[in-house]
Structures are given as structure tokens and as C-alpha cells.
């Protein structure tokens, strides 16, 4: 664990959120699901990308929260929001209708093409771990123009090929079945070790950046397949001082928001 | 009397008075073996109704719910449920559902049949169900393993050519028509005209998909209150069979403008649900050990509720106008 600007501990969740938020520069509309994506998009709005529109999986558009939201359904997201829409409108018209530039997802497992498993570890019929399932992940992958993935853990078990189960398939798998998805699938994967990128259909994930103090070899060793590496791997910039972000404008202690569940 | 001062018609708004106690509504409309839909997407979750189903000891239910969370875990632990149809089986972002995981991972204490969908797959099932359509198409599932484990996710060829003039393949989901749908809302009149605001999820479609519908509300209001803002009525009286007045009945979820989400309880449930004995003790104390939801509310105590209180944020009134 590293230390923040004021000597407070920085969790991996916080680090991931800061890095993920930077990737949102120059994007217009972002779809945020449960968990880390909420933090990353909120942080992006407060720092590098104040103009992005965040659409929450609960149906809130144009939120102006008085406090940092704890979940996608926090009541502070609704009070003062520009719009709140129903599920058929959200998933049918907004997402499937092609209005989302970036979807943000998490997963238990990801493979080299950016396909995601959020259903089971082990066999479907007798899983070692029953995970929460798709949520809107299948729809985000199929319909957002690109997808950013935040992975809490970078290990050969979570970065694995093949997956135990493919819940949310990228465009390569969809096309193989004769279905044309709207977007490029996963284009960024942000982990505690670095950032992977992928250009779209037919491309594998490649390592493009490492976190400070992490080597390319460490990332490759933590990946369950022979990970491709970009010609020039950069180092992720150290995080901005704590005072610039959410803590200043909310009464909720950042430490509780960023705590691991 | 000036014409504009006269009521347009006499008689009750919405016709029959449908107000019932929770006990009577569950007894009348939820039977062993039924398919029961509980909707409310993270907001207005009909927890009190789930608890009454537990108190009455219903068995062999098929529960249909997009986000199967704490109330579903509690109904599973109480032995009410044999089949679950859902698109998210987790304790929000606060952790996992211990009982649900034990049922699925190790059939402990008994197996649970689980039909997995995505969120929009569930929405489309409600849409097809509410409109009595044979199926509903959606641009999901291409390349997913879900159709391999859920044979109700099927692919058809569109009868129309795709954008490139070639035949187009698309997945479809079947309708769902629950025996009963139960939703929670801020307010209704005695006839069942139901008004809600904030996150409104898929409640209206879930009600229309069902054969019967129970609406649980924070408060019963006069017809005039409903009729002062008809656009806020998301579920009209004709779709409702019972109106149950049950303040704070969505706890630990929230009711926009009434009380906030009990985030501490969501976190606590992740720990409680890890231990089967602790779950049963919790159900004994808070559900089976209380006569009704009013007793549950009183048992939590006013100090506890004060911690979930919200301040006022009124909307600007809109002007519907009237003919001069």
C-alpha cells in the first residue's frame, strides 16, 4: 500500500479510479455500472473530463449529486438530476439505441480478446464461486462504442484464456456467431499493475503502461496468456494530490467510499 | 355553480376500494408454487411484502426479479423459493449473498434452479409479457455462453433484411407472465392509481405482465392528490388488485423523499448471510418474530429511523391548465 499526499493510505480502488478517470478525456457519454465505475466516472467529472455526461445503470442522466454517491442508486444522484428514465428506455433506447460512447465494466475473469466472465468460477452446474452475473454487462459490451474494464486483481486466474464462462462477449465472439455488435468491445483494461489496450475487432489486448514501480515482466507473469507488449510502454503518472478530488466537496470521508467491499 | 367547479364525474377515482392489509393481500394473491415477481430496481424494493411471504410460510415459489438482493436471499433462507429468474444475484456493491451462493454452489440445504438473464433480457421478458407477445428481440447474447445454459435464449432470423440487405440474426427472449407482481411505491389512492418518482425501473411493465398485482405504498392519498398530477401515475388503478399501506416497507432500500437507503444494513447483511445459523436467528427475530411490518419498524426504533431521514427537495409544481 502506498501513501497519499497527506500521508493517508491509498487503496488500490482509489488508484484504479484515478487512472480510469484519466482515460475518459475526450469522451462524451459514459455508462456507469455498480462499484468502481461509479467512482471512476465521478472522479473524471471532477478532474479531467468535467464535460462528460454520465448515464447511471439505475436510469439517472445528468446527475448533480450533493455528496459523493455510494452506489448507482444513491438518492443524491436523483435529487437535482437532469433526467431519470425507466429501464426500457435506458437499456432499449439509450444503450441499444447507440447513445453511449464508453461503457465501464468490472469482471472476475477477462481473456486476451476482452471477453468477460461475471457468472461463475468453475463449472456452471456446480460452480466453485457463484458470481453476481451479467447485470447490464452483456448489453454494455454489445452496444457501447467502446468498453473500459477495471480489474481489482491482476493474476493468472483473473487474466485467463479460455474463460471458465463467457458472460459478456466482445465483438469477435459475436461476429463468429453471425451477430454484428455496435461497438469495438474492450479497448482499455485498468489494473493495479498497469493499463492494457486493444484497438477493436481482430486485435488482442496489449500492455501499454505500467504502474510506478512495476516491470513489464511482472505484468506478463501475472497474466495467464502470452501477453503482447506495445513498442513503447509508458509509466502511469503518479496520482494527483488528494485535495483536488472529491474530498473537498463532500462530507463523506473518501476513505469509506474507496474502501474495498 | 360554475361548470369548472363541478367534479367531472361522481364516484371514486379508480372504482373499487382495493385497500387491504399486507397479511390479507399475501394470503389472497400469493400461493404455494406461484411465480412471484418482486420489482424495484435498487429503489422501492418491496421488502415488507417478501417478509410477509416468509411469515406465511409460502413454498416452492418461482421468484422473478432483475436484481436479486437481500430480500431474495432472505426468502431463500426461509425456504420459500425453488426457482429464481434474475439478471444480477449480488448484495448491491456491498458483497455477496451467502444463502444464494450456498444454494447454487453446493445445493445447501437444497438445490436452487437458477435461470440467468442480462438486465435487458429481463426487461424484454416483461415487455413481451405485458404486451402478450410470443417473444421480444434484443441485440444481446451474440457469442455469450448464456444461451448454452439457458435454452430460453434463442436466435431467430429477422423476417426483414439487415442494413446491408443480408438476412439478420437476432436473439429473442420469451414473455414472463407472473401469477402476481408486487411493487412498492410512494403513494396511491384507494382504487390503486399508483404514483412514484425517482428511480422507476421496470415496475409498470412488471405489473402489466402479471395476472394480479399488489401495490405497497408509503402512504394512501386522497383522489384529489393523485388527480392534481396525473402524469406521475405510472400504474393506473385498472392494473392493480390490492393496495397495501406499509410505511417504510422498502427498508433497507429507500423511498425517494421519504427515507434514505440503509447502507450499513447492506454491509451487515454480507456478514449475516455468511452463517446459516445467523440468518435463521435474524429471520426469527426480525421477520418470524414480528407480527407485521409495523412491529419491525417499531422494533428498529425512532432513533434508528432518524438516521435514515432525508431533508426536503420539492419539485416546482406544473400547470395542467383548465378550460375557461
From TrEMBL, chain A:
Top-level taxon: Bacteria
Pfam families: CoA_trans
Gene Ontology MF annotations: CoA-transferase activity
Keyword Lipoprotein: no
Entry keywords, A to Z: Transferase
Keyword Transferase tagged: yes
Family according to the record: Belongs to the 3-oxoacid CoA-transferase subunit B family.
Protein name: 3-oxoadipate--succinyl-CoA transferase subunit B
Source organism of this protein record: Streptomyces fulvorobeus
Gene: gctB
TrEMBL record, chain B:
Matches recorded under Gene3D superfamilies: 3.30.30.40, Glutaconate Coenzyme A-transferase (3.40.1080.10)
Alphabetized Pfam families for the sequence: CoA_trans
Family per similarity comment: Belongs to the 3-oxoacid CoA-transferase subunit B family.
This protein's UniProt keywords: Transferase
GO molecular-function term, one example from the UniProt record: glutaconate CoA-transferase activity
Transferase listed as a keyword: yes
SMART domains referenced in this protein's UniProt entry, alphabetically: CoA_trans (SM00882)
Native source organism of the sequence: Streptomyces fulvorobeus
Protein name listed in UniProt: 3-oxoadipate--succinyl-CoA transferase subunit A
Record-listed E.C. numbers: 2.8.3.12
